[in-house]
Amino acid sequence: MSAFxxxxxxxxxxxxxxxxxxxxxxxxxQLSVAHAGLMGVGAYTSAVLTVNFHWxxxxxxxxxLIPAALLGAGIAGATLRMSELVGSxxxxxFGETLSVAAFNITYIGGANSFQGIPLHTRLPITLVFFALxxxxxxxxxxxxxxxxARAIRANPIPPQQTASTSLGFASSAxxxxxxxxxxxxxxxxxxxxxxxxxxxxxxxxxASSSTSFSAGRTRCWDxxxxxxx
Length: 229
What we know:
Number of domains: 1
Number of strands: 2
């Protein structure tokens, strides 16, 4: 397989991973636009650990999941009782705040991007991560957490006596969804860009995030229509 074809397939699989994470979020009734920020968190965490601390590639990927998942759970706790519009604006502001912060932190390259990232990501590794993500999302949907997520979507403002339980389920869903872009972006900077330079800038997450958002949102809508019919 040519290097060009491999790059296209890797990019498609990585975007599919983010779309699956968005599907989990929307399935629980939360319209989050914060995945772009979570992608950046996972990317920078993995890149810093790999380049500056010389961590093994797989260990750095796993470490990149943790802050993205924790931030996803925190966002769920903050936006659970907000309306869809207000929650979307809040998560959008969260992502933009992270973007501005990244541009002003010289340790991670600032506006000049993070450079010197080794190129570890290859198609077999990406296929394994994609298959694992599909399995985890499928298990989540079939589990009690998945049933609770759909119940929260049907009743987004739960009674006071069940608010803590709903918060836990929503946080779990958002943590799972947040881990997906964290995982994806841990791989993304280690692929070969069109210029062949192993660099990463926070602004690169916008185009891929919007594409993945549309895919995840459409997937959830199709499943909802199928269930209702």
